[in-house]
Automatic annotation (TrEMBL), chain A:
The keyword Metal-binding applies. InterPro entries: 2Fe-2S-bd, 2Fe-2S-bd_dom_sf, 2Fe-2S_ferredoxin-like_sf, 2Fe-2S_ferredoxin-type, 2Fe2S_fd_BS, Beta-grasp_dom_sf, Diverse_Oxidoreductases. PROSITE patterns: 2FE2S_FER_1 (PS00197), 2FE2S_FER_2 (PS51085). This is (2Fe-2S)-binding protein. PANTHER family: BLR6218 PROTEIN, OXIDOREDUCTASE WITH IRON-SULFUR SUBUNIT. It holds the Pfam family Fer2_2.
UniProtKB/TrEMBL annotation, chain B:
Its main location: membrane. InterPro entries: Cyt_c-like_dom (IPR009056), Cyt_c-like_dom_sf (IPR036909), Cytochrome_c-type_DH (IPR051459), Membr-bd_ADH_cyt_c (IPR014353). GO terms for molecular function: electron transfer activity; heme binding; iron ion binding; oxidoreductase activity, acting on CH-OH group of donors. Keywords: Cell membrane, Heme, Iron, Membrane, Metal-binding, Repeat, Signal. Residues 133-242, 263-350 form the Cytochrome c domain. One of its GO terms (cellular component) is plasma membrane. The keyword Metal-binding applies. It is found in: Cell membrane. This is Mono/diheme cytochrome c family protein. Signal peptide: none annotated. Pfam families: Cytochrom_C.
Automatic annotation (TrEMBL), chain C:
Residues 213-291 form the Aldehyde oxidase/xanthine dehydrogenase a/b hammerhead domain. It comes from the Bacteria. SMART domains: Ald_Xan_dh_C. Gene3D superfamilies: Aldehyde oxidase/xanthine dehydrogenase, a/b hammerhead (3.90.1170.50), Aldehyde oxidase/xanthine dehydrogenase, molybdopterin binding domain (3.30.365.10). This is Isoquinoline 1-oxidoreductase beta subunit. PROSITE patterns: TAT. SUPFAM superfamilies: Molybdenum cofactor-binding domain. Pfam families: MoCoBD_1, MoCoBD_2. One of its GO terms (molecular function) is oxidoreductase activity.
Length: 151, 371, 719
């Protein structure tokens, strides 16, 4: 039995040690906002925050999370940077199919929390691990720039 | 130990792994399940012991020293019996190993008698009373059961281990088995005991990277099951190995320094940002798991990027207490030049030196053997 | 106010299966309505004059949208069409995915389907009519209540106002009475476009909020009580069957509940995906791989190239192209090759099914709801009206979900168990069990006269006929797949003499399918590459050459000129950088694309900039047109640069994003899209960018290096 801190709540979960955090979130805790895309850390659709850092939940065994707090797309309500990011995303109409967007947004928030005014290079470095098949990259970059300008 | 030679892709112990020996041929590890026809089911204790420790199978078939009997001869009879008892408890699998393809003159098995006379040690290592029990246990694990030198010590023309360059690193199956002598710059002299123990028992040490290739197999299937005492004993013994300097030292940039450096704008950097940072991050800290931390990895300190390229091409798997840590293979999709660019970027970024990996090197790595 | 009038057929919509319609309310509306709503044809009930509008006495206004949302923004566009005529704001409505029902059939596709960039073309009039009919009835109901002339009443934002007295009634207050009125059989007035409040004015996407806060439910997110999760291994060789499975080890995996088999696949079911996945890995499966076990990529290409010789079906003739070419001053000839492609949407294939003796519920994202429903009916033996299909947001379609074989498979597994079963394919299964865009080989010969003018074009296409499987009735009587005529016969150019023939060669070892841009994607690459080759032979600038061929095509000429101007065509570029142009007329829209590419001496390709000029007729939601072209280009660039599905021993080799590479943010070009004002009826837009990508890129690479690129992908070994 493991204790997981997710979106500010402690959960007791009885799962195998090697079970990736992604499936604990989706199939055990009922938080489907974090998406399954590739399972090998190549697409970023499963990006969540562990201790404030963007990680790929598909490749993080739940037993390695420990006591570090986990934040998912469902747990951003109180977060100021997240509010700005969400606003920018909607203002620019970034989303298309939307499937990769929770991961993109979590990656963007982690970037902005460490660096409120990232350069285009820094945006690329932080975001290029997140694939979008609909090709919303230009708008994602623009939205991140807008947040940087707004804060 | 070259991974589990008798295992291939999860079909444990039944199908022979191939050993490509340049200039000699291909030798397959045989079935060692208790199957009576294709395995070791009919071996007696004595026959098994003879095969393991003397390299002589039933019917006086002399084994090639790919089977590390020159190391195993140093094992105790009790341990060899214990191994046989374990193997006999497994489910028998009927699976003949493919025929070896060995060139003349190496295909004359009786030639091995002469080889054995020249190079095979005579028996188990007696404890050195002048050393601690831990050192003696460590020596047993490193020299005999673990046969570390089989990979990490270069071989002579006749496939014997070089005594003058013991543990100074060697090429094996196209991989560089690193210098694990106590040389500070090119070996493990600068590693802390904690780092060494962590690496041996988990395949990863902070600031030293993660085991890949055959060493990942060794950790996955063997070392990680050792008791902490045995790991500590190995560390004790490894520390006592004489320093042997090899050509290349290790260069590393700390994550703190990396954060200060101006970005490099290159094809390699772009590709790294897309395909690699998802797991490794640009500062080498690794993202979700420590196993993905690149900081201090030896593979990024070698300017020819030999192991690095091989890992990028083939990917790899390290079994850990938290499940399998998998690096996907990038060889099938990325062009040789792209992989060379990524390698050179990573070597400069994390290794603080100029990589000189070429598209040709990548092409060679795809063939499984270095140029 | 000028009004156009059109006839509306009576209650064309509600017909369907006994008037019973099921609909899933999408997340945006979740807080305001039940998750499942039943519509019955009840004159006293909620006001539902057709299949697209429903107004309840509580004031809730529900728009039922005939096309599925998979990123293209169609929910927003179609809601705008209805809301414009219904006279409600987008903040006053809730939207629902259409159920599987005849009322939502897209005529051009022969079934209820979202694809081929047809949605806006198909619904441009019909959805406005649906809104207008509803508004007319609401106004009449108000007039009846007040006993006044309907002409003295106006609608505005969900309210009917009696102008002389200022009295108002909300649509909700009128719903019951409006429902009692007969639906008009005659013409209904539609708004004059000059009075549009919504259409043509950028509106934010209705699905935006749910998609940024994580509450949007995709098929893969469905949760049902007692649901279990399965993952599948199908025979890796197409056509192979399951011989034997040893599941002893799999059943030992904690959390594994069942191991199910069908003819060609095994499904391990667990409490969660991880258990199922570990269980699947623990199976020892023996397949009979069948006849395709020897197929390789070389086999595929060899068969295609061989068919460049020998018989073919004449698909199109205009003038005497062969004679014209024979008499030409110069002759240009080229063979182009395009690979098999996977769809690789971000959401892996999934389908949730619950089969009971009485009914079957299917929760899935599908582009073909009726086909999916019918497949479930066939597998379960239940009548169609006992199958309830709940269509969900699709995490990227691109044509993949015009197929429904994964629904059939999921129902085949789910009927073996009593609980709801969610089947999720791994990414590896998704890529290796895709239905692929076909490989094609094209051979073109063109003749130029002494002035460098094209006098004749002869063209042979070799490849599969996807339509022959997907909609056999739509295969032309002569055996030609008319999708192949897109962009090859219908070009933006005046070509005096043309000859096109077609050698059909089905691809062994895979099932071929539609893929974003369909015939346009393959056709534009071939034609626009060849136009560039002709221009080079004529020693004429590629844009100038195209201008000469579009003298009597003003819409084509206008986009070409605009793109050239905005891209600064003709200005000097640094060494190693080249510009390429592509002009196209597909899906009823004109696009000109100028791509700028930088080539390193090491062969690295970097797309720097893309400029697109578009005339897609009247624009419904301008920013979404821009968005579709941006995204379509990126999708097309991924394929053009990197993608090729290869076969070895009948098995697809590309298994995940490490081996099926897609364009990433730092590889994406700057993209500018310029829209031309137009009053023509709308054209399609969702696939146009993808169709443009490869040709513009290949032409830019040729300009940068001086050599032609006739094989896709452009950075692959074939190029």
């Amino acid at each position: 039995m493991l204790t997981l801190q997710v979106n500010g709540t402690a959960h007791q979960v009885d799962v195998p040690d090697d079970m990736p955090l992604l499936w604990v979130l989706r199939d055990v805790l009922g938080l489907p906002g974090t998406k399954f895309g590739c399972g090998i850390g190549q697409c970023g659709a499963c990006t969540v925050h562990v201790d404030g850092k963007a990680v790929r939940a598909c490749s993080l065994p739940v037993s390695l999370v420990g006591r570090r707090p986990v934040t998912t797309i469902e747990g951003l309500a109180e977060d100021e940077v997240a509010a700005e990011v969400t606003k920018a995303w909607l203002e620019i109409d970034v989303v298309q199919c939307g499937y990769c967007q929770p991961g993109q947004i979590m990656a963007a928030i982690a970037l902005l929390k460490g660096n409120l005014h990232p350069s285009d290079d820094e945006i690329d470095q932080a975001m290029s691990g997140n694939i979008c098949r609909c090709g919303t990259y230009r708008r994602i970059r623009a939205a991140i720039r807008n947040v940087a300008g707004a804060v | 130990m070259r991974g589990l030679p008798h295992e291939a892709g999860g079909r444990a112990l039944r199908r022979g792994r191939a050993f490509d020996l340049p200039g000699i041929g291909t030798i397959y590890a045989p079935n060692i399940t208790p199957d009576s026809e294709t395995g070791i089911g009919r071996y007696t204790d004595a026959q098994f012991d003879s095969a393991v420790r003397r390299g002589v199978g039933p019917g006086w078939r002399h084994l090639y020293p790919v089977m590390p009997y020159a190391s195993y001869v140093k094992m105790t009879e009790e341990d060899v019996r214990a191994i046989r008892a374990y193997l006999m408890s497994l489910r028998p699998v009927h699976a003949p190993a493919p025929a070896n393809q060995v060139r003349f003159p190496y295909n004359i098995r009786v030639a091995m008698i002469g080889w054995n006379l020249l190079y095979r040690p005579s028996g188990p290592l007696p404890d050195d009373p002048g050393r601690t029990a831990a050192w003696n246990r460590g020596r047993y694990l490193v020299e005999a059961a673990g046969h570390c030198g089989e990979c990490h010590t270069p071989r002579t023309m006749l496939q014997a281990l070089s005594m003058t360059k013991s543990y100074a690193g060697a090429m094996i199956d196209g991989w560089l088995a690193y210098n694990i002598s106590s040389d500070v710059d090119s070996g493990i002299g600068a590693w802390s005991d904690t780092q060494l123990a962590a690496y041996l028992s988990t395949g990863h040490a902070d600031g030293r990277g993660t085991a890949v290739g055959p060493m990942a197999d060794v950790v996955s299937h063997s070392l990680r099951f050792l008791t902490p005492e045995d790991v500590a004993a190995m560390v004790t013994y490894l520390r006592s190995l004489p320093a042997r300097r090899s050509d290349e030292t290790i260069g590393v940039v700390s994550p703190e320094t990396l954060a200060q450096l101006a970005p490099i704008h290159s094809n390699g950097e772009r590709l790294f940002a897309g395909a690699c940072t998802g797991c490794h991050l640009t500062d080498g800290h690794g993202r979700q798991v420590d196993f993905a931390a690149l900081w201090g990895a030896r593979s990024l300190g070698e300017t020819d990027g030999r192991n690095l390229v091989r890992t990028m091409v083939e990917g790899g798997t390290l079994q850990t207490a938290h499940g399998a840590m998998v690096m996907p293979a990038f060889g099938p999709e990325y062009r040789n030049q792209d992989l060379a660019d990524i390698a050179n970027y990573a070597i400069s970024h994390f290794g603080n030196r100029e990589g000189h990996v070429t598209a040709r090197d990548v092409a060679a790595a795809r063939g499984g053997v270095s140029p | 106010m000028a009004m156009t009038t059109i006839a509306v057929s009576r209650r064309q919509a509600l017909a369907g299966a006994g008037g019973l319609l099921m609909a899933v309310v999408l997340p945006r509306a979740r807080s305001r309505a039940a998750t499942v709503t039943r519509i019955v044809e009840d004159q006293t009930g909620p006001f539902a004059p057709n299949a697209f509008v429903r107004i309840a006495p509580d004031g809730s206004i529900t728009l039922i949208l005939p096309n599925v949302e998979m990123g293209q923004g169609i929910y927003t566009g179609e809601a705008m069409l209805i809301a414009e005529e219904l006279d409600v704001g987008l903040d006053q409505i809730q939207i629902e995915a259409a159920p599987a029902d005849e009322a939502y059939v897209t005529k051009a596709l022969g079934t209820e389907a979202t694809g081929g960039s047809t949605s806006t073309i198909a619904t441009w009039k019909s959805l406005r009519e649906a809104g207008a009919v509803a508004r007319t009835l609401l106004i009449r109901a108000a007039a009846d209540r007040w006993v006044v002339d309907p002409a003295s009443c106006q609608s505005e934002a969900g309210v009917v106002r009696h102008v002389p007295t200022g009295r108002t009634l909300t649509y909700g207050e009128l719903a019951v009475e409006a429902a009692a009125l007969p639906v008009p059989s005659g013409p209904v007035a539609l708004r004059d476009p000059s009075t549009f409040r919504l259409i043509g004015h950028a509106q934010h996407r209705l699905d935006g909020p749910a998609k940024v806060n994580g509450t949007a439910t995709f098929g893969i997110d469905i949760q049902q009580p007692d649901m279990k999760i399965g993952t599948v291994a199908a025979c890796p060789v197409m056509g192979g069957v399951l011989l034997h499975v040893d599941d002893r080890a799999a059943r030992q995996v904690p959390g594994v509940r069942d191991v199910l088999t069908i003819g060609n696949a095994v499904c391990v079911v667990g409490d969660h995906y991880w258990a199922a996945r570990k269980g699947l890995e623990a199976l020892a499966i023996t397949w009979d791989e069948g006849v395709n076990a020897t197929v390789s990529t070389e086999t595929v290409y060899r068969q295609l190239h061989e068919a460049l010789q020998g018989p073919a079906i004449v698909a199109n003739t205009k003038g005497d192209a062969k004679t014209a070419i024979k008499g030409a001053a110069a002759r240009v000839e080229a063979v182009y090759q395009q690979p098999l492609l996977a769809h690789a949407p971000m959401e892996p294939i999934n389908c949730t099914v619950h089969v009971t003796p009485e009914r079957c519920d299917v929760w899935v994202g599908t582009q073909v709801p009726m086909r999916a429903r019918d497949a479930a009916a066939e597998v379960t033996g239940l009548p169609k009206e006992k199958v309830f299909l709940h269509n969900q947001y699709i995490g990227g379609g691109f044509g993949r979900r015009l197929e429904h074989e994964y629904v059939t498979q999921a129902v085949q597994f789910a009927r073996q168990v009593p609980y709801p079963l969610k089947v999720i394919w791994s990414r590896e299964e998704d890529l290796t069990m895709d239905r692929y865009r076909p490989a094609y080989v094209d051979h073109l010969v063109g003749g130029l006269d002494a002035h460098g003018k094209l006098v004749g074009l002869s063209h042979r296409i070799v490849g599969p006929a996807v339509v022959a499987r997907w909609a056999p009735e739509a295969l032309l009587p002569n055996g030609v797949d008319d999708d192949l005529l897109v962009a090859t016969v219908e070009t933006p150019y005046a070509i005096p003499a043309m000859f096109l023939d077609y050698a059909r060669r089905e691809t062994p070892g895979v099932v071929t399918a539609w893929w974003r841009g369909v015939g346009g994607t393959r056709g534009v690459f071939v034609i626009e590459s060849f136009i560039d080759e002709l221009a080079a032979s004529a020693k004429v600038d590629p844009v100038a050459f195209r201008r000469r061929m579009t003298e009597d095509r003003p819409r084509a000429r206008a986009v070409l000129d605009l793109a050239a101007e905005k891209a600064e065509w003709g200005t000097t570029l640094p060494e190693g950088v080249g510009r390429g142009v592509a002009l196209q007329y597909v899906f009823g829209s004109y696009l000109a694309t100028v791509m700028e590419v930088e080539m390193s001496t090491m062969g690295t390709v970097r797309v720097r900039r893309a400029v697109v000029a578009v005339d897609c007729g009247r624009v419904v939601n301008p920013d979404q047109v821009v968005s579709q072209i941006e995204g379509g280009l990126i999708f097309g660039l991924s394929a053009a640069l990197f993608n090729e599905v290869t076969l070895k021993n009948g098995r697809v080799q590309e298994k995940n994003f490490n081996t099926y590479r897609v364009l990433r943010m730092n590889e994406s070009p700057a993209i500018e899209v310029h829209l031309i004002d137009s009053t023509e009826d709308p054209g399609g837009i969702g696939e146009t960018g993808t169709a443009a990508a490869a040709a513009a890129l290949a032409n830019a690479m040729a300009a940068a290096t001086g050599r032609r690129y006739r094989r896709l992908p452009l950075t692959g070994p074939q190029a």
